[in-house]
Design goal:
The complex is a heterodimer of chains A (79) and B (441). Helices cover 51% and strands 16% of the residues of chain A. Chain A contains two helices and two strands; from the N terminus they run H-H-E-E. In chain A, a hairpin with a 2-residue loop joins strand 1 and strand 2. In chain B, helix 3 packs parallel to helix 7 and helix 4 runs parallel beside helix 5. A five-stranded mixed beta barrel of chain B has the order 1-2-3-5-4. Classes of the chains: A alpha+beta (79), B alpha/beta (441). Strand 1 of chain A pairs parallel with strand 7 of chain B.
Chain lengths: 79, 441
């Protein structure tokens, strides 16, 4: 997947924070890491807020798959 | 007329009668006297506490007929026809299908299947796929009615409001359930775009959970390329589905919790990381600043070092002087007694003493010497006169000469010992002649 994943971003962020906390980065690298860290935090926060939740049913009708929005409490579709 | 029948005719009639009269039967009872000849067909006696009947179960071609193996003592429910076997005049049940009856038998079937699949390696930990950390879309296989789907919806919404669900409806109870669950799994795989699948059902008896102990379903779950979470039953109920799934959740609610991280926790994690990032950034800057200060403080004018060296040199000079003085004193101390001893042994005193002695001795010697000289000169005069008469030199005066061969200087007495060319020294009374031999006569 070319798209950056939340999990990977979070892992990278943790790594950056650990490196910076270890305190043996040269100043230049520390500044760069800090900027990258801030970028990852923004990315992750945005990911968390992303999209409205969708709940769908996956059904097979006439040998083809289709999805339909699921209403809570609706009748059993397989019946 | 009496209607006389042969035995064969009678038995054939009985057979036809039995088959027509009873049709398809459901019979329950306990298996005993089980025999399994080479043919693969199974012969046994079905009995209860009062009665018994013969039964035969013809093994269908190529198919594993029973989800479990029949054993003596098992209680079973048979779908069967009643028939007779004319050669022996025996009637018996022709069993078409068998279901285990009661907890003991179901348990037996379950244990057998579990052991077989475990031996095949279907439950190996190495086959378990890890769950995604934050699924974008969760596939849910369950009934769309009932508490289970509602629990899953509620919990996922509470934990993480924006995770999508794709529900593949399937009946989770009854004879068709296993097939429907398999179909639902296939639908989700065909559709794709699902990060994890939850198969869920509320608790129930071992019979209720039978679909989840289905071998075909177990193999389908193992084949899944998407991680599968089994959430069947309640806490203590384990199904084959639980063993073969990538993760077993004790309840559907627990499955929802295991699959979906808490958004608030993630936000807290992020916030915490942000704080730590800021703090270490500040610490890093402060540290560098501090290092700079400390370096600046340690950066001194080199002329200060010159002053230090000057003082040091002075100090060394002083110490050198003192050391020298000390050493001179020590040597002087050793010299004094030596001087005193040397003075005590002044040779001039002894020289004076000895010179007096010498003067006396000299006087005596001179007297003796003069006497000796006088005496000797008298004797010399006498002897010289005598010697003069005997001297070869005196002979030379008379015309003789002494010839010597050079360079040895040996006196020649025999001419034969010479050879022409020899050099000769010839001494005459007055002077010497050097000559060369010409000829020997």
């Amino acid at each position: 997947m070319a798209k950056e994943k939340f999990e990977d971003a979070l892992e990278k962020l943790e790594q950056i924070v650990r490196e910076m906390e270890a305190g043996d980065l040269p100043l230049d690298a520390a500044l760069k890491s800090f900027e990258e860290g801030i970028r990852l935090i923004r990315f992750c926060s945005a990911k968390l807020e992303e999209t409205q939740r969708r709940v769908e049913l996956l059904l097979e009708k006439e040998n083809s798959l289709q999805t339909r929005t699921f209403q809570d409490g609706q009748e059993d579709e397989t019946g | 007329m009496k209607n006389v029948l042969t035995v064969s005719q009678l038995n054939d009639n009985i057979k036809t009668f039995l088959e027509e009269a009873f049709g398809i039967l459901w019979v329950e009872g306990e298996v005993s006297n089980l025999r399994r000849p080479q043919s693969g067909h199974v012969y046994f006696t079905l009995k209860d506490d009062k009665s018994q009947i013969r039964a035969v179960y013809f093994r269908p071609y190529g198919v594993r007929a029973v989800k479990f193996d029949l054993e003596d003592g098992l209680k079973i429910l048979c779908r069967a026809r009643l028939s007779a076997y004319p050669p022996r005049g025996e009637y018996q049940l022709i069993v078409e299908s068998v279901e285990p009856q009661g907890v003991g038998a179901l348990q037996k079937a379950f244990e057998q299947l579990k052991a077989r699949l475990a031996a095949e390696g279907l439950f190996d930990a190495s086959l378990k796929k890890p769950l995604p950390f934050l699924p974008r879309r969760i596939g849910v296989i369950t009934s769309t009615t009932g508490a289970v789907i509602r629990d899953i919806l509620n919990i996922t919404r509470r934990r993480f409001p924006c995770v999508n669900l794709l529900i593949a409806p399937a009946r989770v109870q009854g004879a068709e359930a296993a097939g429907e669950i398999i179909a639902a799994l296939r639908r989700l795989h065909a559709w794709g775009d699902v990060d994890v699948i939850i198969i869920a059902r509320g608790g129930g008896s071992l019979e209720d959970l039978a679909p989840f102990n289905d071998e075909t379903l177990a193999r389908e779950i193992r084949r899944s390329t998407i991680p599968v979470v089994s959430a069947v039953g309640h806490e203590t109920d384990y199904t084959i589905c639980d063993f073969v799934a990538d993760l077993r959740a004790p309840t559907p609610s627990a499955a929802a919790e295991l699959v979906v991280p808490r958004k608030i926790e993630l936000q807290e994690t992020l916030h915490d990381l942000y704080r730590r990032l800021l703090a270490s950034q500040n610490r890093c800057l402060a540290l560098q600043r501090e290092r700079l200060h400390s370096l600046a403080a340690r950066f001194k004018d080199p002329r200060r070092y010159l002053a230090d060296y000057a003082i040091h040199v002075d100090d060394l000079r002083e110490r050198l002087k003192r050391a020298l003085a000390h050493r001179t004193e020590a040597v002087a101390g050793r010299l004094k007694p030596l001087e005193a001893r040397l003075r005590g042994a002044d040779p001039r005193r002894r020289i004076r003493e000895h010179s007096l002695l010498l003067a006396g001795l000299e006087k005596n010697l001179r007297g003796g010497w003069n006497r000796f000289l006088l005496e000797r000169s008298e004797r010399l005069k006498k002897n010289a006169a005598l010697l003069s008469s005997l001297s070869p030199l005196a002979v030379l005066q008379r015309g003789y000469s002494i010839t010597r061969r050079l360079p040895e200087g040996e006196i020649v007495r025999d001419a034969k010992l010479l050879t022409p060319g020899n050099r000769l020294d010839i001494q005459v009374a007055l002077g010497r002649i050097e000559a060369r031999v010409e000829k020997i006569k």
